[in-house]
Specification:
By secondary structure, this protein is mostly helical. It is 87% helix and 0% strand.
């Protein structure tokens, strides 16, 4: 995204690099796990919506 000002990006990088490699790895793993949970829930929600839509179509037909 291009909506973050450059000085904020530089501060974020400075904060990130001030952490130890272990802290950065832990944070990466936590964020990655949260992302997978989000996508799994989104996929489940999308599949449920498709099932409901499919059910309605079969009833309407």
């Amino acid at each position: 995204m291009n909506d973050t000002p450059q000085h904020i990006k530089e501060l974020q990088l400075k904060i990130w690099l001030s952490k130890s490699p272990g802290e950065r790895l832990r944070q990466f793993m936590e964020d990655n796990a949260a992302l997978f949970q989000f996508w799994k829930a989104a996929q489940k929600s999308n599949n449920n919506a498709a099932d409901v839509k499919g059910g309605r179509e079969s009833i309407d037909s």
